[in-house]
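Hi team,

Filling in the usual template for the complex we talked about on Friday. All components are listed, including any nucleic acid strands or ligand strings, so the model treats them as one assembly.

SUBMITTER: L.P.
PURPOSE: interface mapping
COMPONENTS: two
RESIDUES: 970
SEQUENCES:
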Amino acid sequence: MSTAGGSNGASIRSMLRSPAVLIVGVVLTWFIAAFLVWPNANVLIQTFFPDGSFSGRAAEKLFSSQRAMKSLGNSFLLAVALSITVNVVGIFIVLVTQYFRIRGSKVLFLGYATTFIYGGIVLAAGYKFIYGDKGIVTGFLVGLFPGMDPGWFSGFFAVLAVMTFATTTNHMLFVTNALKGVDYQTIEAARNMGASTWTILRRIVLPMLKPTLFAVTVLSFLTGLGALSAPQVLGGREFQTITPMILTFSNSPTSRDLAALLAVILGVATILMLAVMTRLEKGGTYFSVSKVSSGLQKQQIRNPVANALVHAAAYLLFAVYTLPVVLIVVFSFADGAAIQTGQLLPASLTFDNYIRVLTQPSGLRPFIISIVYSALAALIAVGGLLFVARLLQKYRNWVTSVVEYLLHIPWILPSALLALGLILSYDHPNPLVGGAVLTGTTVILLIAFVTVKIPFTLRMLKASFTSVNSSLEEAANIMGAKTLYVFRRILLPIVLPAAAAITALNFNSMLDDYDTAIFLAHPLYQPLGLVIKANTDGADGVDGVSNTFVYTVLLMVITGVTMYLVYGRAGRKAARAGRAGTGDKGSTTPALIEAAPAESVRVP
Amino acid sequence: MRRLKTMVAGAVAVALLSGCGAGAAAPAASEAATGPAAVAPSGPPSGETLIVYTNSNGEGRGEWLTAKAAEAGFKIEIVGAGGADATNKLIAEKNNPIADVAFGLNNMYFEQVKAAGAIAPFTPAWSAEVDAAKGDPSESKAYWPLVQQAILLGYNTEKFSADEAPKDWTDLWTQDKFKSRYERVTGLGTATAQLVFASILTRYKDETGDLGVSDEGWKQVEAYFKNGTPAVAKTDLFARIAAGDTDMGQMPSSIILEREKSFSVDVATVMPSVGVPLAIEQVALVKGTDKQDEALKFIDWFGSAKTQGEWSQQFNSMPVNKAAVATAKPEVVEFFNTLKQQDIDWTFVQENMGAWVEKIELEYMS
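RESULT (copied from the run log):
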C-alpha cells in the first residue's frame, strides 16, 4: 500500500480498482470542470484577451509602477514574516495551553481562542484603540516616557504584530488536535534517557506536528499575501499592501486585467509555497507507531526561571489577545463619533446601536439566510472533500497531483472575479449543468461558497489524514474490509474532530461574506453581508461605524456559539475521558491505535 | 402548455435578436440607441415584485422607499450595492437580467452600463419636469436624473476664516499653509473621489497630453498626493477634523449637516470660480426585464414631483425635478441656488475615467 517505492502507473491502476474511487473520480472531475476550471478560464480569457488577442499591457503597466511594485513587495514581505511569527506565537500558545503545566491554562485558552470569533477591520480597529496614537496603552507609555512618539504603533511592525495575534486560530484548532495524537510513551522514554524538556519538544513533539504545521504555514503565508484591513488601518504611508489595489482594479472594467494579473501573481506564489510544503511533507511518518501508545500528559517545566518566564509570557499574551475584544464590546454601546475619535465616556454607553440594528424591517431574516447558506456550504465542502482528501493523501501519482492543484484554483483569484466567472459561464443554458441557467437562482451563491472553501478544507483535511497511522487501514484491509468500510469505521472517527473544526471555521468565515454575495445572491434571499455593507459603509453616516461594531459583536455571539457546539463539547468529552483514566486519546480510537504494530519512529 | 408556448416564443425572439446582433454588431448598438423609447402603459400597478438595484439605500432610504412604494401599490425588493459593484453587477447580468430597475448611480456609472447594452431607452411621464441636460446626453435617453449632489471641498471654520480658506482645490498644494492640512484619498474606488479628479483634470484638457490631459494637469495630481495627509480606513473625515488631525477634505453636499452635528464641528465649503462638480443620481430601466410595464409605472411614480419631493424632505437632498423643488428643504434649495455648477465635458470624462483612475493609482498614489 505504501507509495514510497511504487511506480506511478501501479498506483493509478490500484486506485482505479475501487468502484468507490471511480464514482468519486467522475463526480470530482465534473465539479472541477464545471465550477473551478470553466468559469475561471472564462473570466481570465475575457480579461486578458478582450478582443481575442493577448496584450501585454497589464504587465507593462504594473511593472513600471513604483507603487504597485512596492505594495507587492510589502505583501510578500508580510507573507514571509507572518509564516514565521504566526508559527512562533501559535506553537507557543498551543504548548502553554495543552503541553506544559501552566496555572490557569483553561482561562488562557479562552483568551487565545478569541481570534476564533472575530477578525477583519474591527479587529484592527480594536488594536488601534489600545496601541494607536490615542490608545490606552500608548497614553500610559507616554506618561512613563514623555519623549515617546505617540504614533509608534504603525507601519510594518504594527501590521505584523496585529496580524500575528489575529491569525493563530488555525494553530489553536489544528495543532492542538495534532498534539493530542502525540504518543506520551515516547516522551516518557526520552525523559528516562535524560532528554531535557527542550530536546523532547524539538526532537519528538514538533516533528510529529509537521504535517499540520506545514498546512497552517501555507495558510499564514496566504493570509499575509491577502492582507487588507490591518495595513489599511495601521500600515500608514510606508506600509501599504497590494490587496486594496486589486480590489479597486477588479471593480473597474477597463483595469480588470491588472487586478487579474496581480491576483495570478499572488496565486502562483501561493501554489509554489504549497508545492514546497507538499515536498517537505512527503516521505515522513507522522503517526504514533509505538506498541501501546497513550495520551499526552501535561509537562512540568523543570527549570524554575524558565517556568516563571513562560508563565509571564503566557499571561502577557493573554492580555494582548483579550483587550481588543473587551474594548470592541464596550465601544459597540458607544455612539459613532465616540468610536471614531476614540474618546469613551461611560455616560455615552447605551443600547441604541443594538436597538437600531435589530429593529430594522429586515430584522433577523438576513441572519437566518446567512446561517443557512454558511451551514450548507460548510457541510457540503467538508463532507464532499473528506473522501477526496483521503484519496489524494493515499494515492500519490500525477493524476492526484493534478486534481489537488486544480482544487486550489479558488486561492488564485479574488472572490469578486470568481463570482464574475460564474455569472459569465452560467447566465445562459449550459450543458455542463444539464442545460440550466444558474444566475438568478439560489443555488449559484451556494456553489460559490462551496468552491471558495475548497482549498482550505482540503489542506486541513489532508493534513489530518496524514497523521493517521496507515497500519490500522492495512490491518483492516488484510481482514477483508472494503475501502468504504475502512473509511467509515476507522479513518472517519479519527479525523472527525479536525473535520468538525474545519466545518466550524468555514461556517464562521462565510457568515458576513460580501464579495461573493454582492454578485450572486438571489434578490429575495439576501445574506447578512449585504445588509452589513448597506449599514456600515463609510459614506453612510456616523451610525455606520457603530453598526459595524454591533454586527461584529452579534457575529461574535453566533461564531462563539458555533465554536462552543463544535469544540467546547468535544473538549469536555475528552476531558471527561481523561479524568476517567482511560488512555486518553481525545476522540480518536484508542483500541485500534494500540493494535498498531511496533516500529521505530521515522521522521524526515 | 401555455407556459411552454411563452417560452418558445421568448426563445425565438431571443434567437432573432441575437441573430441580428451577431450579423452587424456595430449597427446593432446604434440601432438600440436610436430605437423607440419605452413608455409606461396607463393603468394601476399590477403588484408584481420588482427587483431594484441601487447604491442609494443606506441610512434608511431602502426601507423608506419600499414602504412608500407599497402604499402606492408597488411591491419592490431593493438590492443595495456600492456604485461600482452595482455597475459591474448590471453589466455582468446583461444576458439574463435579474433587476428590473436601477437607480442612484451617477451618469458616469450609467454611461458604462449603457455602453454595455444593459439598460434600455425609455421616456418617463415626468420627462418635461427635469432638465434633460442633467441626464443621458445622447439622443435616445436610457437614464433620467433624479437627485443632484454637489461634490465640495469643506474646511474647519475654527482653523480658517472665510478669507484665509482656500479658494479652489489647487490652492491646497500651491499654498504652504494648506500643505499637510488636507485629507487626500487613498483609493479612487468611490464616485466622490472620481468626481473630484474629473473636476481638476478637465481643466487641463489637452488632446496631445497623456490620456487627454496636459503635463501641467498631471503635475496637479502629483502635488495633490504629495502634500495631503492620507485618509484613514473606517475613520470619517469629520472625525479627523474634530480630532485636529486634518482641517479639510472632499465631501458630498448631502452629508454635511448631519456630520457637523455628530462630531460637533463647523464646516464651510469652498466655491471655486470655475464652479463645483455635480453628481447626478439617475434612474434606468433594465434591458430585457420581463416586467417592463410595471417597471416603467414604478419609475413614473418614483420620479414624480410628489415622491421626489417627499424623498428630498426626508433625506436632505436636492431633487432635479423642478416641480419637486418646492417640497425640498429650503436651506438645501437655497444652497443649490447660490452654487455655480462647473462646466464639465462629461463625454470626455466618461471616455477617460477608467484610464485616469488606473494611471493615478499606479503612478501618483503612494
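MY TAKE: The radius of gyration of chain A is 25 Å. Chain A touches chain B through 63 residues (CB under 8 Å).

Thanks, L.
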